[in-house]
Each structure stands twice: as C-alpha cells, then as structure tokens.
Inverse folding.
C-alpha cells in the first residue's frame, strides 16, 4: 500500500484524538517500517506519533523524585 501525505495526516489526527498508532496502522494495513519510511520521505517528525503514556505519581513517588 502506498502511504500518501493525506493518509499520514488522517492517521495523525486519529492518534491526537486518542487512538493508538498500532491500531491505526493495522486498520490501514501498513507495517511499521513502511510507516516510518513514509514519515521520513515527507519529512514529518516521528515524535508526532510516539505512544507515550502519561506518568502518574503518588505523593510518595513525588517525594522520592524531589
């Protein structure tokens, strides 16, 4: 499958609204290497699509970090 800039933008918008990258790639039948190659070819930062979970600290963990 050819990954177009429009498809990349569509997937990024889905990710921004809470969808997971892996789920969107599977839904569009795109492998990870093809996805990242397409991002590089359109000069789009891969950090846009990284899946980072928010960290939640308890008061005790915050004290340890501090």
């Amino acid at each position: 499958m050819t990954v177009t800039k429009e498809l990349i933008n569509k997937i990024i918008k889905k990710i921004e609204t809470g969808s997971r990258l892996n789920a969107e790639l599977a839904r569009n039948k795109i492998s990870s290497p093809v996805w990242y190659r397409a991002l590089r070819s359109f000069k789009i930062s891969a950090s846009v699509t990284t899946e980072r979970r928010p960290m939640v600290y308890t008061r005790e963990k915050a004290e340890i970090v501090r």
In short: The radius of gyration is 16 Å. The chain has a mean pLDDT of 84. The CA atoms of residues 32 and 55 lie 25 Å apart. DSSP finds four helices and no strands in the chain.
